[in-house]
Amino acid sequence: MRLDKDTPPRFPAPMTITGRNAHREDNMPHDSLELRSTITADGTLRVNLDRVSVPDPGKGELLVRVEAAPVNPSDLGLLFGPADMATLKAEGTKDAPVLTASVPPHLLPAVSARLDQSMPVGNEGAGTVIAAGPDLQDLIGRRVAMIGGAMYAELRLIRPEACIVLPEGAGAAEGAALFVNPLTALGFVETMRAEGHKAIVHVPAASNLGQMLVRICKADGIELVNIVRSPAQAELLRGIGATHVLDSSAPDFRRTLEEAIAATEATLAFDAIGGGEMTSTILNAIEAVAARSLESYDRYGSSTMKQVYVYGALDTGPTILKRGFGFTWGIGGWLLFNALKRMDPAIVQRMRERVAAEMTTTFASHYTATISLADVLKPEIALACQKKATGEKYLITP
Amino acid sequence: MRLDKDTPPRFPAPMTITGRNAHREDNMPHDSLELRSTITADGTLRVNLDRVSVPDPGKGELLVRVEAAPVNPSDLGLLFGPADMATLKAEGTKDAPVLTASVPPHLLPAVSARLDQSMPVGNEGAGTVIAAGPDLQDLIGRRVAMIGGAMYAELRLIRPEACIVLPEGAGAAEGAALFVNPLTALGFVETMRAEGHKAIVHVPAASNLGQMLVRICKADGIELVNIVRSPAQAELLRGIGATHVLDSSAPDFRRTLEEAIAATEATLAFDAIGGGEMTSTILNAIEAVAARSLESYDRYGSSTMKQVYVYGALDTGPTILKRGFGFTWGIGGWLLFNALKRMDPAIVQRMRERVAAEMTTTFASHYTATISLADVLKPEIALACQKKATGEKYLITP
């Protein structure tokens, strides 16, 4: 987690020892198994489990037993870095397993800032408060959703600002992914409003996040163009009420994309693929639709502002822009933490309240399988996590 | 010129006949030779000279004898479109020459909106007022700089809002290019201020526009990183006072680019190349410099906002983005007319006044050769105009 000078940390930083004012039951654990990822200077990825000692919670702190943490695409960058997944190997012992892989030398400079550092992993999760500072005793026993990194662990010391207290009876799996995807999907809609667009194109749209966006837009009366990668995914989205669903593998994709953009007047897109030509294809389609209403030729293109935000990197290859879309366009990175910083705090608060209220409906996530911390160190499971196939999603239950 | 519903025209539109209140000398010409470009539906570019009749100037109008008009890169797109310049042919007769070329079939859809239309060409120029509406008689005999299209012609009917009246004694060549390049260079600086950057990277920097930017930044105390394509261009820029000049053909270009960015703290760039990897290289260099001051690894990259505006298309090939620059970045098209619309009118007025005051110094342009309207129809000259080699610039004197 970064703590630079100019900006607040994007997530609350993992806690350090804060004093002796312990408030925990006598039989409470004082150490925690924690998943760590290291890339060594000689180009080896090492993922292992460390036994770390956990301090007693001080004032303003909660000690949470982590019960569920999703493997999000945004976790994989830190977990496996740019390692060659074909070289995955199980090493170490049965009690202290280690997963290794080679990092191609030409990719090492991109991760120079993390070399030889043992990094905790896991953006978000849910668990039960087992101890708390003197001011937070009423939260003991409550289940909370958390954001802040280092969630692939048995225990997490955390501040309540980084938590949502879940309703009584809520399961850990239900609360495990209430930050990254829900706030991102709601953030897209806020970005749309702030920048004056009226509809959104989303790709790939069948992810957990995409499904949330379908439900949000349906509830809020916003038109959404969903681009998926197979007929089955198209079926899935139509099943939850999506209207405009396009299969990018279909031969008439470009034509149907223009039709959907014309029908919705979408001029804004969010692309989690990043590499390849999808961003370019969307910009060209928006421009082609805008050009239909030009009264005469303009060599600078239409004056319709076309914007695509790249918020993921499912394809880490180069982005290829075939600039047939004039001069009135923008592309940018979109990062939840940057977006939240720019928003009115009242909007952010409303977003959090909506997530809590609709956790089992709008913001429900679905998982392919539940795995243990040690399972992540098995090459076949690591590979399955890394595949990032839409609809394949793992939940770690430490 | 476009006249769409939502926005004012980017340039004043060419005038149409406005009435019988003629105010012109008896021996004044009533028709004008005008250069026209047509792309036919079957894929042929035709450039020819039309004899068009010019109405008498009405109220609020000036009739100007065009004396000089530059061939800007921004004119070439309309003049030659996507024609294959290897197929240029001189046709027609001596008195009515025609230049033709083939447009490759796959590039025709990009210009579908102009097919079979005879388009006048020439964004800007200068000339002498030879007749005027009753309210503008005092301008007869004055030399003016003009913007508005259709400048590759003997006569231009125009409104005074689209003109700068030049000081007595100013030559036509001096006034021919006082809009596009000067306002673009000043616009870059205004964009820098509006978006909170403190220095600029510019490529390619040895153009007439680049030289203006060097002089503006020097006068205004703004740091500028100049990327050129040869040692001779580097020498030229150093000769007019540029400090950071990098040759992109040098083997240590990437290293020196990072050094210059570190020295200037530039986080904004303007790229007229468009195609290829220059935009990507600049973003990666800015990110590499920003990453130096990160206290710990952040897999989302630095939080330093990195922005590149593409304002030209010297390379019309795809833009290739190798996204090693995190998630806090933007790329966009930059168009003078969009930028002017967003600016405070008082700023635009100050820009125009500065251009008039510094026309022979900061905003002086240099030309390789002076050519006639008919010369443009000669294949060898058309080819030379299209080459867009920095430092090669033609001035048409109708």
Describe the model:
2 copies of one chain form a homodimer. Helices cover 26% and strands 28% of the residues of chain A. Chain A has 398 residues and is α/β, with parallel strands linked by helices. Chain A folds into 2 domains: 15-177 and 365-396, Quinone Oxidoreductase, Chain A, domain 1 (Alpha-Beta Complex), CATH 3.90.180.10; 181-340, Rossmann fold (3-Layer(aba) Sandwich), CATH 3.40.50.720. In chain A, strands 3, 7, 8, 9, 10, 19 and 20 form a 7-stranded mixed beta sheet that branches. A 6-stranded parallel beta sheet of chain A has the order 13-12-11-14-16-18, sandwiched between helices. A 5-stranded antiparallel beta sheet of chain A has the order 4-5-2-1-6. In chain A, helix 5 (231-239) links the parallel strand 12 (223-228) and strand 13 (244-247). Chain A is globular, with a radius of gyration of 22 Å. Chain A starts with 30 loop residues before the first strand and ends with a strand. In chain A, 46% of the residues are buried. Residues 1-22 of chain A have low confidence and may be disordered. At the A-B interface, strand 17 and strand 18 of A face strand 17 and strand 18 of B.
Fold topology:
Two copies of one chain form a homodimer.
Chain A (H helix, E strand, L loop, with lengths): L30 E9 L4 E10 L8 E9 L2 H8 L3 E9 L4 E6 L16 E2 L3 E9 L10 E5 L7 E4 L4 E3 L6 H4 L4 H15 L4 E5 L4 H13 L2 E6 L2 H9 L4 E4 L5 H12 L3 E4 L2 E3 L1 H14 L14 E5 L4 E7 L7 E5 L2 H7 L2 H13 L11 E3 L7 H8 L7 E3 L2
Parallel strand pairs in A: 11-12, 11-14, 12-13, 14-16, 15-17, 16-18, 19-20
Antiparallel strand pairs in A: 1-2, 1-6, 2-5, 3-7, 3-9, 3-20, 4-5, 7-8, 8-10
